[in-house]
Specification:
Blueprint (H helix, E strand, L loop, with lengths): L19 H22 L12 E2 L2 H8 L1 H24 L8 H20 L3 H4 L1 H8 L16 H15 L7 H22 L2 H6 L1 H9 L5 E3 L6 E3 L2 H4 L9 H18 L2 H10 L7 H30 L6 H11 L4 H27 L20 H4 L1 H30 L7 H23 L1
Antiparallel strand pairs: 1-3, 2-3
Helix pairs in contact: 1-18, 1-19, 4-10, 4-16, 6-8, 7-8, 7-10, 7-12, 12-14, 12-16, 12-19, 14-15, 14-19, 16-18, 18-19
Amino acid sequence: MTETVLAHGMGGSTDLPLPLAYALIGGVWALIITFAVVAVAWRTPRFDPAKPGRNLPRWVTTAVDSPIIRRVLAAGAMIATAWVTVAAIWGPQNGDNPLRGAFYVLLWVGLVAVSVLIGPIWRVISPVRTLWRLAGTRRGARRYPTGLGYWPAVLGLFAFVWLELASPDPGSLTAIKVWIGCYALAMLVGAAVFGSTWFARADPFEVYSVAVSRLAPFRRNRGTGRVVMGNPLDHLPTMPVRPGIVAVMAVLLGSTAFDSFSQSKAFRNFVDRNAGAVPFLGDAGGGSVLRTAGLLLFVVVVGVSFTVAARATGGVTAAQRRELPGRLAHCLIPIVVGYIFAHYLSYLVERGQETIVRLADPLGRGWHLLGLDSGDVVYFLSANPTLLWTIKVACVVIGHVVAVIAAHDQALRVIPVGHQLSGQLAMMLVMVAYTLTGLYLLFGG
């Protein structure tokens, strides 16, 4: 098994089942053709959050709302957390410890997969929410400031991706433990001050889960309260527009792009050559500074380019122009989800299996709980590179195509008549740039 789960790259463009140029050209043409089709044939908005959806059997809603089931799920998550904690503290303090895989793979990537399938599950299973509920408090001492929006979650998300991608030793068990301790303390103290609203605005994992869950096929009918099945693109625009929402998307998308870029030989050589030039910090600290600057640059570029493109339209007032980035921010969710799966799918499937096997022997004593053994890990995707790369290309392209469709439909609602087509050109160019950059970094970088 590998020592860490940090080297997310699966190789360069030579691993592709088709030349890199074909992937780039195909992705861009798919995007351009999609935009041309929807611009000509799609003249009125079609996605409506008010659509009732298809009612599921009533027992589904009963089960989802059942306090007993919710407590069982929360208790299961607490037991799993305790199990990982025991392994982290008393297990082998080397590559066989499951904490890295549980933290970077099962939590970070697995949370996306589950949330896209069934909805914002972290609200139910969050260990810090469970601890707060057990404390018996419901209201905080103060009202959460409206202007603060999602900015605390932005800081939490950036702290996570910094630890994984830019810190001096991302695989350090001590560093991960310290991060988790700081996260738990911040969540519990914030909840004591602001109540449950703090989790909804500040918990990076909850904001992450809620954002990607807008693509889940299941949602709740606001009128009847029943769980229904419907078009995810009807649900996508319901992402609340609050301060910091564009920054949330920028951190998620920019960090994933930087992960690919940081695996490139050119960037690694740049860091190796210049790390020692950073004063007072040594090679490890200097390298961390350079990677942090690169990570921050990618996040800022995504946030600024999207904001400029969203505002580049005519026929709107200054106030409406300021609102456009937030009102269009949900269109980045399909790109984020597509790139997450393209980038980390093999890690979720294969490193996830390795982590579960390690959790079956948390103390490193040769246990095989539930009969699990390292020989049970199936490296199906790695053994079928053509399938893997086909899935990767499909995830990136489909994510961008869906984003273009969602952005066009939303533009028909928010951009005045007469400017609806020209007002989308800047966003289209940015989407093309994201597609080219994403495919190149993922496969050629």
